[in-house]
Design brief:
Length: about 375
């Protein structure tokens, strides 16, 4: 985890909590059939959630970059030991709750397929497809996702690996010229270059949206925001970030980049304001932000099963289905809390290979069960 505690900036957790809620509601609007039945009650709201709710992911990308900078290079110079060990710890931290949620998604999809043929229900997975998900390579290899949002886990891991490699490259470049010629903080310069390339080019190529390069602009803005907040020239740093983002938007306006820019500027300013958002300490929104990753992981199978139930019992009653959407949202938060307390928190404190092995075993057994009974 980052050397800077997010509890020092309660608004980070609050922003993650709001983003988490938007993503759950985006998927409730995106995946029917409850949203189809309830659409006539609030078509504008459903359309907005369908089209724009996904932009909340930018909050997590920017925060991820912010925290990665604090973990890897809080002063702009790599402060970690073995790169592979750092990458391995990150994988364990992401994968332990992810595999548990993936197992639930496989079971939920198996139940749903027995009762419905809705397009939102994933097909029965193959073992190769499952292995690709375990290794976080499913999108890169072109496999259908077994749950909504699994693409983000893979991208988060890719971005962290990319950041580690950037600072490893910086160390190599400096090591090749030990008697001067390159600044100590060349890693920051490399991050800046990568951020510019992503914002100006990679993020404009839809074919790259399965790779870290597509999202490196938002992640890089978060990293730059971390260093901006710790700098004695904070105003200059924030000005550079603002100019970079505005130039990218002038070249090709993308709402997702506008959201990332606002979030990055906010983080850069808030880091030097330790009292900002103190009133949020202990609030439900901050607590939701702390467990947002678990909610993000588990909400799809929950929503899938609630959709199935309401479609079977009340397929064409708008108000009942609107209530079903509220129920799915509430259950998603409850299950996310269970996953956070029962799996994510334990893996964070121990980063135990036993948790990962258990998740792999459970996922494999459940896949075999769906093949046997599907």
């Amino acid at each position: 985890m980052a050397s800077i505690s997010v509890s020092r900036i309660p608004l980070i957790d609050a922003a993650k909590g709001l983003a988490c809620m938007l993503i759950v509601w985006h998927h409730l609007a995106f995946y029917g059939p409850m949203s189809d039945a309830a659409y006539t009650l609030a078509p504008g709201l459903v359309d907005w959630l369908y089209g724009y709710g996904r932009m909340a992911v930018q909050v997590f990308l920017v925060v991820g970059g912010f925290l990665a900078a604090g973990t890897l290079a809080p002063d702009g110079v790599a402060r970690y030991g073995q790169p592979l060990a750092q990458i391995g710890r990150r994988y364990l931290r992401l994968a332990t709750p992810y595999l548990a949620a993936l197992a639930l998604a496989i079971v939920a999809a198996g139940v749903a397929r027995a009762w419905s043929e809705h397009v939102s229900i994933p097909a029965m997975p193959t073992l190769v497809q499952l292995l690709a998900h375990v290794l976080l390579l499913n999108d890169l290899l072109g496999f259908e996702a077994l749950s909504a949002g699994v693409w983000y886990v893979a991208i988060d891991f890719q971005l962290f690996v990319l950041a580690v490699l950037v600072f490893r490259l910086a160390e190599g470049l400096r090591g090749s010229r030990p008697h001067g010629g390159l600044p100590e903080r060349i890693g920051i310069a490399l991050v800046l270059v990568l951020t510019v390339l992503s914002l100006m080019w990679f993020n404009r190529q839809a074919s790259l949206d399965t790779s870290a390069l597509y999202f490196a602009g938002s992640y890089g803005l978060g990293m730059l925001a971390f260093w901006a907040g710790r700098s004695s020239r904070r105003g200059l740093w924030l000005g550079v970030i603002a100019c970079l983002g505005l130039l990218a938007l002038a070249l090709d306006y993308r709402g997702r980049i506008a959201v990332a820019l606002v979030m990055a500027l906010g983080l850069g300013w808030l880091q030097s304001q330790p009292g900002a958002g103190r009133w949020l300490l202990g609030s439900w929104l901050q607590r939701l932000g702390q467990m947002s990753y678990s909610v993000f992981l588990v909400h799809f199978p929950v929503c899938l099963l609630v959709n199935l139930l309401f479609d079977q019992l009340w397929p064409a009653q708008p108000w009942v289905n609107a209530g079903g959407m509220l129920l799915a949202f509430a259950l998603s938060l409850l299950c996310g809390r269970w996953l956070y307390r029962g799996v994510e928190q334990r893996s964070a404190s121990a980063t135990s290979a036993w948790h990962l092995s258990g998740g792999l075993l459970a996922t494999g057994v459940l896949v075999l069960a769906t093949h046997a009974f599907g």
